[in-house]
Hints:
The protein is mainly alpha-helical.
Amino acid sequence: MWKFRADFSYRQEDFEKALKEYSDCYALIPPANNAMRRDVQESQARCLMRLGRHKEALEIAEMLTKVVSNTDHLTGTLHLQATIHNYLGNLQEEVWCLQQLISLHPFNPEFWISLAESYNSVFLTITNCKDPSQSSRRFNLCARRSLGTPQCINGIARPIDSSVSVDDTIVPGQCNERDTLLNVYTHWEQLRMWSCASFIRARLLLQFIQPQHASFVLEKNLKTQKQIEKLLEKAGLLKEHKLLMEEVMGEDLLAERTKEEGQTDTKTTQALASFIMPSETDFKDRWFQKINTLLGGIK
């Protein structure tokens, strides 16, 4: 009963009340009921996000990661972490979470769009030393960033909705985040290419599942495809480069397992003991190394 009451409060956007009710509910759950405890804790984290208490939400998400037992649990926890890191401006951590999500679900276009956006934000932060919360040049195709009250990060207020246009103000003084990101992304010029390739992958997936869609879902699919095309044009991607990326990023869509139109090889729930998560280097080699080589191998 407490859980239903808390869910109702959350839907009513009374997040303070929902948080209290989830907390009361959690106190009544038997220790052996791990599934319900996980569900309620994730709900608590989402309430905390909506209330602007993002670090507390992140603590819960990180704790949940330590006790995951299968790939479904890991997916939910990684998605929660990526959302929180995005709002906090933790670009490196957000990219890592999205790479892990894509490794689990390589046919999910939303995850690819999110990764493309994150790579673009890293690129802008490194090249221009700008605060990643400034969004007028950040791509916004996924509604996942309106999380609560404005928060001040490095002295600059982050808008509630990242679709709100703001000036691309350069952060005064030393840009510590830029230096940190440069240590991770030494070949920063590749970031724009990775962003474009990720967008292309997302568009290919949307085209692939388009026959399954109808009504408003189809309308949203087609609208997103058009937005991606405009973004690629804005990025100044050469036609031959775009065609090459389309070929490479869509190779697995022609495999035997996707022979039936609109069907993809979706992963079923697996025990973590039987699933090996690739490293960041493995991820880049899997998806981008061939493009690097064919485009002349930016070193």
